[in-house]
Write a structure and sequence with these properties.
CATH topology of the largest domain: Thrombin, subunit H
Distance between the termini: 55 Å
Keywords: Calcium, Disulfide bond, Glycoprotein, Hydrolase, Metal-binding, Protease, Serine protease, Signal, Zymogen
Signal peptide: 1-25
Strand content: 25-35%
Domain Peptidase S1: 141-398, 525-775
CATH superfamily of the largest domain: Trypsin-like serine proteases
CATH class of the largest domain: Mainly Beta
Number of strands: 36
Largest sheet: 7 strands, antiparallel
Number of domains: 4
Helix content: 10-25%
GO biological process, one term: protein maturation
CATH architecture of the largest domain: Beta Barrel
Domain Clip: 415-470
Structural class: alpha+beta
Oligomer: single chain
C-alpha cells in the first residue's frame, strides 16, 4: 500500500511539474480582434480544430486570413497561433498527454476484393506519387549485420524524454512531413512510461556514438552530413488500436517542420501501386534498427537483418494468438536474426517493383517479437501489414496537412520590414491587399506620397518580377481578397456635445491617470531659444534608417510615443527606433556648466515593437495626422526621462488660448541648419481661418493654428511630430505641462522671410482614439 502511495505521489509531482512547464511556456499575445490570447501550437486551439472539423480543406478565405494574422511564432519556430484562453485545449494528465496524441479518423481497411488503388485517398496518393522514394545509398545490398553509411536513409529514431535511454523506438520517413511508426510506441498502459512522451524524431543517423559519421571506402574517407532533429507536432494513432492487442498497431508522427530531402535523408516507398501490393516471396525481406542485440545491449550502429515471411500459424503458435490479414509474420528462426524491442516501430521492407523501377518498399511495421533477443528465444516477429492500412495512411497524410500548409505557404515567402517598420512578407504586388485597395481607390492617380511608399516597399532585386513588402495581415492567402486591416482600432471622433470623460477608453484613462506626468526638469521657465539640460524630459527623437533623426515625438506612457502619422508614412526611410533623454545630439554625455558642472546620464535608445497610425489619416488633406509608437520594452522613468500629461481631465480642457504655448525640438533653425541642442519657442494661438487661408487647406476642430508672426518663431520640418504644450491646471489643479497639439504642417523654408504659422493636430479631439490604442 505504501509503495502505491509513493508511486501516486511521484506521478502527481511529475504531472504538476509538467503542467507548470507547459503553463510557463505559454506566452501571452494579442488576437487580431485585439483581445488577449495565449500563444500555443495551432492544433491545441479549439477554434482551429473546430474549423478544420467543419470545413476540412475548404476553410473560407476570411477564416484563413484570421488564422494567418493570429500567427505568433517566429519564422524559425514550429507554428503557433494566438488563441483565446478559454479555447486552449488543456493537457490531460496520464490520459492523453499533450494534445500531440490524436486518434485518427476511422477509415475502412483495404478490401482485397476491390481495386486497390481506387480505395486510397486521391490527394494522399498524389503526395506519395510525387516523391522520389526508396533509393538506397548503397549500390548493392551486402550481407552482414552492420549497414553501410546511410544505406537506408529513411530510418528514423523516436526520441523520448527519458534519463536512461534517449531512443526507444524506430520509424520510417514516408513524406517530407510524416514518419510511420507503431502505435505502441506512442501509447502504453503503464502511466509512468506514458510520461515519457516522444518528444522528437532524429533523421540521418548511422552511429549513435559519433557526432559525425564516416566510413573508409578504399583509400578515401567519406563522411555524412550531420543528423537532423525534428520536433513532434502531432501523433496520429489508429482509432481501433488498443494496448491489449497487437492489431491496428500503426501511427503517424507529424513533424514540426518540413524535411528537406538530402542524400542521407530520403523517404521509403509505400505500396501505393497495384504492382507493389504483394511481397515478392523470392526476394529477401529486410528489417533494420539500432535495437537490442542478441546479447541484450543496444547497438550504436544501424543494423540490418534478412528475414523470411512465414505463415500466420508460426507466429500464432509462438505467441498463442490468432493473426489476421492485417498482420504479417516474419523472422529467421534458424539463425535468430530478428528485431528486438529497441526496433519497435521500425520498417519491414523489400526491394520490389515500383512503377517502372525496383525500389525499397515498406510492407510492415515491427509490432511484437521476442523480448530477450538472444539465442534462447528464437521467435519470429509480428508486423503490422501496411497494405491493409494504406487507405488510412493516405487519408491522414492529407487530413492534418492542409492547415499547416497555409502557414508553410506564408513562411515560404521572404520576410521583410515595411517602410512603417512593421513585419511584412515579400510578395507579388497582386498578393497585397493594401496595393489592391490603392488601385481600386485611385486607379492611375495614386498620390505621390503613396507612390513613394510603394517604391520604398520594393523587396525584389535585379530582373525579378516586382515584389513588395506587404504587412503580414494584408497578404492575400486565397483567391478571395481579404478586407483591408487597419493599422489601429477605429474610434469615433470626440463629440463636443457629450460628456468628455465618458468618451475615453476606461482602461486607457486608468493607465494615464496612474502616471506621474508633466514635471519639467527646470524649476522655472527661462527665456531664450536654448533649453536647459533635460528641461523637457518627455521629448523624443525618431531614429531613421537613412538620416539619423528627422522627427520628434513625446513620451506619454512607459510604452508609447505620440507623434505625427506623416513621420512614419511619408518619410523616405523607415523609422527604426526612438531616443529619449537627449539634449545635445553631438555629445555622448550632456553637461551644463555652472559653479558646479551638472551632467545627465546618457540618453536611452529603444526599438519599435509596433506603429499604430490613425486609420483615417490623409496626407493630402493634412487631417488625422497622428500616430503611436509602441516601444520594444518599458521605459524606466527617471528625472531625465518622464512623460508629458495629456488633456484627459475636465480641468485640462479649460485651455487658456490667450496664454503662451510652447514648442520644442532639434529642428531646422531660421538659417536652415539643424540645431544640435534642444530648442524651444513661445507661440500664440491663431484663428483656424488664418491657417486655412495661408495653406489653402480645409481646416477644422481637429487642428490648431499657432505661431509667432512677429518674430517668425515656429517649428520646422525637423520638429514634425513634436509637441505643442502649455503649463496648465491638471488633476489636482496644480499646474503641469500638458500636450495639446502635434506638429503637423508649417512653413518649409523656416526663415524670417516666411512668417507662416504652423498647423497642429488637436490632441483633445483624438483622446478617445489615444486611450483606446494604448491599451
Amino acid at each position: 500500500m505504501e509503495l502505491e502511495k509513493n508511486i501516486l505521489c511521484t506521478l502527481l509531482i511529475c504531472y504538476l511539474h509538467l503542467k507548470f512547464e507547459i503553463t510557463k511556456a505559454e506566452e501571452s499575445c494579442q488576437l487580431p480582434s485585439y483581445e488577449q490570447g495565449v500563444c500555443v501550437p495551432f492544433n491545441q486551439c479549439k477554434f482551429i480544430t473546430d474549423l478544420f472539423e467543419k470545413y476540412q480543406d475548404r476553410i473560407p478565405s476570411h477564416h484563413i486570413s484570421y488564422i494567418t494574422r493570429s500567427k505568433c511564432s517566429k519564422d524559425t519556430e514550429p507554428i503557433r497561433i494566438c488563441c483565446k484562453p478559454e479555447e486552449v485545449e488543456q493537457v490531460a494528465a496520464l490520459v492523453e498527454p499533450a494534445l500531440l496524441k490524436t486518434v485518427g479518423k476511422f477509415v475502412e481497411d483495404t478490401d482485397y476484393n476491390r481495386d486497390f488503388v481506387s480505395q486510397l485517398n486521391t490527394e494522399g496518393l498524389n503526395i506519395l506519387n510525387n516523391l522520389t522514394c526508396g533509393d538506397s545509398n548503397s549500390n548493392r545490398v551486402l550481407g552482414g549485420e552492420e549497414t553501410n553509411l546511410n544505406e537506408f536513409p529513411w530510418m528514423a529514431l523516436l526520441r523520448y524524454d527519458s534519463p536512461s535511454n534517449e531512443f526507444k523506438c524506430g520509424g520510417s520517413l514516408i513524406t517530407n512531413f510524416y514518419v510511420l511508426t507503431a502505435a505502441h510506441c506512442a501509447k502504453t498502459p503503464d502511466p509512468i512510461k506514458y510520461l515519457l512522451l516522444s518528444i522528437g524524431v532524429r533523421l540521418g543517423e548511422h552511429d549513435l556514438s559519433n557526432d559525425v559519421d564516416c566510413e573508409q571506402r578504399g583509400t578515401k574517407e567519406f563522411c555524412a552530413p550531420p543528423v537532423e532533429n525534428f520536433g513532434v507536432e502531432r501523433i496520429i494513432i489508429h482509432p481501433k488500436y488498443t494496448v491489449r492487442s497487437t492489431s491496428n498497431d500503426v501511427a503517424l508522427v507529424k513533424l514540426d517542420r518540413k524535411v528537406e530531402f538530402k542524400a542521407h535523408i530520403k523517404p521509403i516507398c509505400l505500396p501505393a501501386t497495384q504492382r507493389s501490393m504483394e511481397v515478392n516471396i523470392n526476394e529477401k525481406i529486410f528489417v533494420a534498427g539500432w535495437g537490442a542485440t542478441e546479447a541484450g545491449s543496444q547497438s550504436s550502429l544501424l543494423l540490418k537483418a534478412f528475414v523470411q515471411r512465414y505463415n500466420h500459424s508460426v507466429c500464432g503458435n509462438a505467441f498463442k494468438i490468432v493473426l489476421s490479414e492485417k498482420q504479417l509474420c516474419a523472422g529467421d528462426i534458424e539463425n535468430g536474426h530478428d528485431t528486438c524491442k529497441g526496433d519497435s516501430g521500425g520498417p519491414l521492407f523489400q526491394l520490389n517493383a515500383y512503377k517502372r523501377f525496383k525500389k525499397f518498399i515498406q510492407y510492415g511495421i515491427v509490432a511484437a517479437g521476442g523480448t530477450a533477443c538472444d539465442f534462447r528465444y528464437l521467435l519470429p516477429s509480428i508486423f503490422t501489414n501496411i497494405v491493409t492500412y494504406m487507405p488510412w495512411i493516405t487519408e491522414h497524410i492529407v487530413y492534418f496537412l492542409f492547415l499547416s500548409s497555409i502557414f508553410l505557404l506564408i513562411d515560404a515567402q521572404q520576410t521583410c520590414v515595411t517602410p512603417s517598420n512593421e513585419n511584412g512578407r515579400c510578395v507579388s504586388y497582386k498578393e497585397c491587399q493594401f496595393v489592391n485597395d490603392l488601385y481600386a481607390k485611385y486607379a492611375d492617380n495614386i498620390p505621390q506620397y503613396l507612390l513613394d511608399y510603394l517604391i520604398r516597399s520594393k523587396c525584389s532585386t535585379g530582373n525579378e518580377p516586382v515584389r513588395l513588402c506587404c504587412k503580414v495581415e494584408q497578404v492575400v492567402v486565397s483567391t478571395k481578397p481579404t478586407s483591408l486591416s487597419k493599422s489601429s482600432r477605429d474610434v469615433d471622433d470626440l463629440n463636443y456635445s457629450l460628456d468628455y470623460i465618458s468618451q475615453l477608453n476606461a482602461q486607457g484613462l486608468k493607465i494615464l491617470s496612474n502616471i506621474r506626468c508633466g514635471y519639467a526638469g527646470s524649476n522655472f521657465l527661462a527665456g531664450g531659444n536654448e533649453t536647459k539640460l533635460n528641461e523637457y524630459p518627455w521629448m523624443a527623437l525618431l531614429k531613421y534608417d537613412g538620416e539619423k533623426f528627422k522627427c520628434g515625438g513625446t513620451l506619454i506612457t512607459n510604452n508609447h510615443i505620440l507623434t505625427a502619422a506623416h513621420c512614419v508614412l511619408a518619410s523616405t526611410d523607415p523609422v527604426i527606433g526612438v531616443r529619449l533623454g537627449e539634449h545635445d545630439i553631438t555629445k555622448e554625455i550632456d553637461c551644463q556648466p555652472g559653479i558646479k558642472t551638472k551632467c545627465a546620464p546618457p540618453p536611452e535608445d529603444f526599438g519599435i515593437k509596433k506603429i499604430i497610425v490613425h486609420p483615417k489619416y490623409n496626407f493630402r488633406k493634412r487631417i488625422n495626422d497622428i500616430a503611436l509608437l509602441q516601444l520594444d520594452r518599458p521605459v524606466q522613468f527617471r528625472k531625465e526621462i518622464n512623460p508629458i500629461c495629456l488633456p484627459m481631465t475636465p480641468n485640462a480642457l479649460n485651455v487658456d488660448y490667450n496664454d503662451r504655448f510652447l514648442v520644442a525640438g532639434w529642428g531646422t533653425t531660421e538659417t536652415g541648419s539643424q540645431s544640435n541642442v534642444l530648442l524651444k519657442a513661445f507661440l500664440k494661438i491663431s484663428k483656424l481661418s488664418y491657417c486655412a487661408n495661408q495653406f489653402r487647406l480645409e481646416v477644422n476642430l481637429k487642428h490648431i493654428c499657432a505661431g509667432d508672426l512677429e518674430t517668425g518663431r515656429d517649428t520646422c520640418k525637423g520638429d514634425s511630430g513634436g509637441p505643442l504644450f502649455q503649463l496648465a491646471p491638471y488633476q489636482d489643479l496644480k499646474k503641469r505641462f500638458i500636450q495639446y497639439g502635434i506638429v503637423s504642417f508649417g512653413g518649409v523654408a523656416c526663415d524670417l522671410t516666411k512668417l507662416l504659422p504652423g498647423l497642429y493636430t488637436n490632441v483633445i479631439t483624438f483622446m478617445p482614439w489615444i486611450t483606446t490604442n494604448i491599451v
